[in-house]
Amino acid sequence: MTQNPEDELLDESLRETFSDFTLSPSSRLWAGVEEQLADIPKAPRALPYKVLLPLVGLVGVGVGWLLPHPESTKPTPKTEQPAVSRTEAPAAALQPAPTTVSPDILSAVAPNKLEAGREQAATTAEKRMAARRPQLTGVETKRITAAQTPETDTLVLAASAALPLAALPPAADTLTATALPAPAAVSADSQLSAAPVQLSASEVRENERTGTAGTGAATRAAAAGVLKPGEAPREWRTEYRVPTHRMAEKGRGFRRRITHLTQQVRHVFSPRRSKAAAQPDF
Amino acid sequence: MPVSSDLDALLARCLRREPAAQRTLYSRYAGRMLGIARRYAYTLPEAEDILQDAFVKVFTRLGEFRSEGSLEGWIRRIVVTTAINHWQSGKLRRQRQVELPDSFDVSPAVSASALDQLNVLEVLSLIEQLPEGCKVVLLLYAVDGYSHSEISEMLGIQESTSKAQLSKARKQLLLLYQQQNNFIRL
């Protein structure tokens, strides 16, 4: 828009007139400004991000470290380890143990030795169980029996099949005293008592190969000699994971964190966990 | 224009709410800003009220100032805006305006440069006789350098209204000058 030169001249004249226009303010003016500034609350200090962010990181790492790790749910060998270590020496000394034994020898030697060992173990363990775990319920007894009996039988079978009887005294004693308490709970109507008699060397090898039920760590160590000194046997007991994966994981907010926290608390303090994680006490 | 280092340090101290620094900043700009406030006000106490409110705003919003422009220009804008707010809220005392005819002719003998012969207070007294809208638009446009779009935004009017008010203000100012001179001559 083009302006009238007269108008521009007038504007210029006004601008020049007021360009140096200054007035001295009265002293009360600053007092008023100071008073109003004092009434205004100070602005809140900005968050110290340089300190806050590392602090949050440290807290996060600490909380993450305190939470249960996946490794902590893995079973740890406890009770079987001494028995295995004791039996390791004769088992390792006799490398071709189960494979070189023919089924005839097995069938001739094993039943007698097995029966004697079983009876002795039964009486010993019965006393110990009665003394140490009088509150054991019937259900638990059956569970222990079902889990332990094959291993015990196999242990005796493997040891007797691999060794001349004279060479076995310390290992056999150890096995009987430490690893054979479970048969004490075998009832008369249990069908497990006949199982070890029919277990042949090929079955032992097959069990060893497939890693199926009834092949305990001690058996495998004695039979195949794969365990080295100081090496813990593989845990045979079944661990049932707490089914936290079934819980819904929707959202990212407070609700999810609360759900996660309650899951962890339940995971730590649930009776199922204590039962599953606890190893048999014998 | 970059802010000089001493002014930068002064601003930093003002941001920390140091009273001495605030007082220094106030002393540096108060005289000029009071002159600006006086143009929009009708009396000196009114101008001081405007200036007080303006400096409170300056110190509370100093963190929003960017060093890209001049600090004086930033404070000047605050003073002008505060003065407009005072005027719009009715805090400024309305002066009795001179009755001027709707259609008036300015003598060709009165030129635009005639105001150069007057001092500041005489020009100010002429401007104060203008209608309020005309006075504010004239000061904003001719003296403080605002555009019509900025004026329309500040005052909440159309740009065409702003232009019309400016045109009317110029003519009335010259007419007032002419009447004053004629009165003096008579």
UniProtKB/TrEMBL annotation, chain A:
Residues 67-98, 200-235 are annotated as: Disordered. Residues 89-98, 210-225 have a biased composition (Low complexity). This is Uncharacterized protein. It comes from Hymenobacter duratus. Residues 73-84 have a biased composition (Polar residues).
UniProtKB/TrEMBL annotation, chain B:
Keywords: Sigma factor, Transcription, Transcription regulation. Pfam families: Sigma70_r2 (PF04542), Sigma70_r4_2 (PF08281). Residues 25-89 form the RNA polymerase sigma-70 region domain. It comes from the Bacteria. InterPro entries: RNA_pol_sigma-70-like (IPR039425), RNA_pol_sigma-70_dom (IPR014284), RNA_pol_sigma70_r2 (IPR007627), RNA_pol_sigma70_r4_t2 (IPR013249), RNA_pol_sigma_r2 (IPR013325), RNA_pol_sigma_r3/r4-like (IPR013324), WH-like_DNA-bd_sf (IPR036388). Residues 122-173 form the RNA polymerase sigma factor 70 region 4 type domain. PANTHER family: RNA POLYMERASE ECF-TYPE SIGMA FACTO, RNA POLYMERASE SIGMA-70 FACTOR ECF SUBFAMILY. Belongs to the sigma-70 factor family. ECF subfamily. This is RNA polymerase sigma factor.
